[in-house]
């Protein structure tokens, strides 16, 4: 079972490396992304029980050297993954800031591993695992301290970057992919914590118990899950464009938008387009057009100043900053819809355009976010509508 857990990530990684080879000419971020996958693939391959001893014998480099190479490539992969996430989450100029400093830190860390490995008593015989075999040697403990500190720091940076990006980014394939990468980094941190705990337990003289006995199995599971999430995150923006997945996404979007579409077109039946037998993509396209036409038809039925009050109400209801635009528009539209249905005269004001996107995919995600905030928008609309009725009665 442990071998299968180690073999599956290796196959996935090498398949991804070969698949993405043609993307290395598409810019710096794509090249670093390919490097991340390639170094992860090398490290995962060297983690297979039979591979490291075979390469040691084949190259004549000496016992356990393949384990050193594995750890060196893991640190390279950690830095490359950090640069990839920075490239996706930040503007290009900001993403490259500090790149030389981070590279210098990597070189120092890798050089330290080489020096400590050379000084450690690991050159006499092949060992199935350096962690268990040399857990209490001072030089190897320092080796692991350097390795885990660098790896843990890089993974924390990836988690922070993805968390920062997810708070601000609109829904989409890139956001989903970075979410998977962030989850993979969290699992990687669990691997770092488990290995550190194992070393502390062994340093305390404990040679048995659940932590010691489960070390190999737990680390195999954590590494396998981490790599699968990394591959999924990297591959999702491309995979999401597959026709089958596009149709599945269109069905999901159509179902999610249907309640919003029904509410808005019930108040503005004139915006409905002639229906004909169509595929799901065309049906979704017409649905989006009708929703946006309905919002245009409803714009005169709520005053411009209501947008600011709607945002205040949404904020008071605890809506996160990333969803404020959607909740604000949901509340404003609900007020306008109710007033049109009641036959209130439209206002003679120019209402700012509702927030949207520049392409169909982006517009779909914007409207899905709007649809998800219909209920909280209705709660805000209750107070806004009552305030407008009071204002209108005073004016009259």
CATH architecture of the largest domain: Up-down Bundle
- Mean pLDDT score: 82
> How much β-strand is present in the residues?
under 5%
Please state the overall shape, judged from the principal axes of the Cα atoms.
elongated
- Overall domain count: 2
Q: In angstroms, what separates the terminal alpha carbons?
A: 78 Å
Low-confidence stretches: none
Radius of gyration: 28 Å
What's the number of extended β-strand segments?
0
Order of helices and strands: HHHHHHHHHHHHHHHHH
Number of helical elements: 17
* Structural class estimated from helices and strands: mainly alpha
Q: Give the % helix.
A: over 70%
CATH class value of the largest domain: Mainly Alpha
What composes the largest sheet?
A: none
Determine the CATH topology of the largest domain.
Rhopdopsin 7-helix transmembrane proteins
Q: Summed up, what is this model?
A:
This protein has 396 residues and is an all-alpha fold.
Structural overview:
- By secondary structure, this protein is mainly alpha-helical.
- The protein folds into 2 domains: 2-237, Up-down Bundle (Rhopdopsin 7-helix transmembrane proteins), CATH 1.20.1070; 244-395, no CATH class.
- It has 17 helices and no strands.
- It has helices at 2-19, 28-46, 51-59, 65-89, 92-96, 99-119, 130-133, 138-168, 173-203, 210-213, 215-239, 243-267, 280-298, 306-316, 324-341, 360-372, 374-395.
- The protein starts with a helix and ends with a helix.
- The mean pLDDT is 82.
């Amino acid at each position: 079972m442990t071998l299968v857990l180690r073999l599956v990530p290796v196959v996935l990684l090498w398949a991804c490396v070969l698949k993405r080879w043609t993307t290395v000419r598409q810019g710096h971020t794509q090249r670093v992304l390919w490097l991340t996958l390639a170094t992860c693939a090398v490290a995962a391959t060297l983690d297979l029980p039979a591979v490291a001893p075979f390469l040691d014998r084949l190259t004549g480099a000496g016992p356990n050297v393949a384990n050193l190479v594995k750890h060196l490539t893991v640190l390279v992969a950690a830095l490359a993954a950090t640069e990839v996430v920075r490239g996706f989450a930040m503007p290009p100029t900001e993403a490259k800031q500090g790149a030389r400093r981070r590279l210098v830190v990597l070189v120092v860390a890798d050089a330290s591993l080489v020096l400590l490995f050379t000084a450690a008593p690991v050159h006499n015989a092949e060992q199935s695992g350096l962690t268990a075999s040399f857990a209490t040697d001072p030089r190897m403990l320092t080796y692991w301290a350097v390795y885990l500190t660098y790896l843990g720091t890089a993974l924390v940076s990836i988690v922070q970057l993805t968390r920062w990006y997810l708070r601000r980014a609109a829904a989409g394939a890139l956001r989903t992919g970075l979410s998977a990468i962030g989850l993979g980094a969290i699992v990687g941190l669990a691997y770092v914590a488990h290995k550190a705990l194992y070393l502390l337990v062994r340093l305390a003289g404990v040679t048995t118990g659940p932590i010691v006995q489960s070390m190999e199995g737990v680390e195999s599971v954590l590494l396998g899950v981490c790599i699968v999430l990394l591959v999924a995150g990297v591959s999702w923006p491309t995979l999401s464009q597959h026709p089958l997945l596009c149709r599945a996404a269109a069905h999901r979007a159509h179902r999610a938008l249907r309640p919003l579409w029904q509410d808005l077109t019930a108040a503005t039946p004139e915006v409905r387009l002639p229906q004909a037998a169509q595929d799901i993509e065309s049906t979704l396209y017409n649905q989006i057009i009708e929703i946006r036409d309905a919002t245009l038809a409803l714009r005169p039925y709520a005053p411009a100043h209501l947008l600011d009050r709607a945002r205040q109400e949404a904020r008071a209801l605890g809506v996160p900053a990333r969803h404020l635009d959607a909740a604000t528009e949901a509340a404003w539209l609900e007020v306008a819809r109710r007033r049109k249905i009641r036959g209130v005269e439209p206002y003679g004001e120019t209402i700012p355009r509702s927030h949207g996107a520049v392409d169909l995919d982006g517009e779909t995600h914007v409207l899905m976010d709007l649809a998800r905030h219909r209920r909280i928008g209705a709660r805000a609309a209750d107070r806004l509508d009552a305030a407008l009725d009071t204002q209108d009665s005073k004016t009259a």
